[in-house]
Amino acid sequence: MAVIINEALLKKAEELKRPLKKHIVYPEKTVKIINDKNAFQELRAIADKKISFPVTLSAGDEIIFDFNDHIVGYVSFSLDNDGLVKITDSPVKLQFSFGEFPLEITASPEEYKGGLGKGWLQNEERSYVFTPCEGSLERRYSFRYLRIKRTDNAAFPIKLSSLKVCTVSAVDIKDAPVLKTDDEILKKIYDMSIKTLKECEQDVFEDGPKRDRRLWIGDLKLQAMSDYGIFGNLTLIKRCIYLFAGATGKHKMIAPCIFPDSPPFVDEWTFCDYSLFFISCLYDFYKNTGDISLIEELFDTAYRQMEAVSEKIDKNTGIINLHPFIDWCPDLDKKTAILGVYIYTLKQLKELGELLGKDNKKTEAEINTASKLLLSFYDEKTGLFTTPSGQISEHSQVWAVLSGVLRDEQAATLCAKIKDIKTPFTMRTPYMMHYYIEALYTSGLKNEALEFIKNYWGKIADAGFDCCPEIFNPENEFESPYNAPEINSACHAWSCTPAYWLPKLLGE
Fold it and tell me: What global pTM score does this model have?
């Protein structure tokens, strides 16, 4: 695999790495998970007992600890024997199951048939030959619930005499500003959002601390946008931008994700919209810091993203012959939406070029060409954008609005009716919901943007989440891009943007 490494940029990224903040937390109670048709995914955790250590475990016993909030960290514990009852004459086997939500605890790993690697399931079994002993798990876990089950069949009891977690994050939640509102629902949404952002800030901005645990640029764009006003972690934002610029495929396009601790760091595949969002990351950095030095240093890398996409546009059909992400939505035709992303990011590139005194003729020509191609998919009769295949999706409308190719009144009219379009190709993730909110906002529909956040993220809060999940469909609580809802992430970075929008909308 051909990977282009810029050692100087990766060195800068490494120099920006900072120690993580650590806190010790303890479980607050034990719970039982019961079936409840009125609960999210028909499961509910109910309080069982107050915790009193030591906890005795005989063969086959299990206990579910509730830490009363989402945490990310490392587990350690103490095991003791009860020699007065019976000597521990064989190894003890313990099974650990971690869950961000109840389904993750109850789903059987043996029956898992999801599209992602089974290794991401938060389960493991350990043997302890001698007791008493101090135990720990090397893997970092993301969870609220921890089930410990004794799986050996020996006749002697053991005692779990202590249990704690060392949580880790690049930031401290107490440093986040308080949202100024009397609306309790909006407060809850904001708190969930900043909690999500905090949990995902580790050595890099992770997409989710449970699974993938990678630096994805689609997530970074939204995380950084939110972080500027919440934690102001400019060091981490800059580190992540350097990481993306420091390792690319032979095509020089920015990779969709970085494996920061696993050389060669990137695979060769790309999402072209994610590559273009490198431009947005630089643009937002300048807009929020006024620091032009990073823009000067990495402008050529940003410009290359435009060139790479430009080389793949069919100027007759408007089709970009590269694969974008856009959103998780089965059978979505993304050809119109990616034109919108292209124009959206190129307008940012043009502004950065003007800032640096660059020749913008190529950028301006690309904007004009792409705008004409995008408008060729606009149906004057319906007031909607289609795709070359004739598909109508919410995604095409959102990105057409964000591209700015419509007049202000046209954009506002289109944006207002997006959620009323009768189509199976709907927004499925909070990631795409963010861009819908941005489309509402830029079209002057600020009250509608606020109401949408309250409705959509409010349902997430009502479902019992501590953080904001990767995917949430109120019409299908078991929806999963991976055909296995238990592997969905219940704390996912691209869902945190109410942390950005609420202070902005309420402030205005």
Answer: 0.96
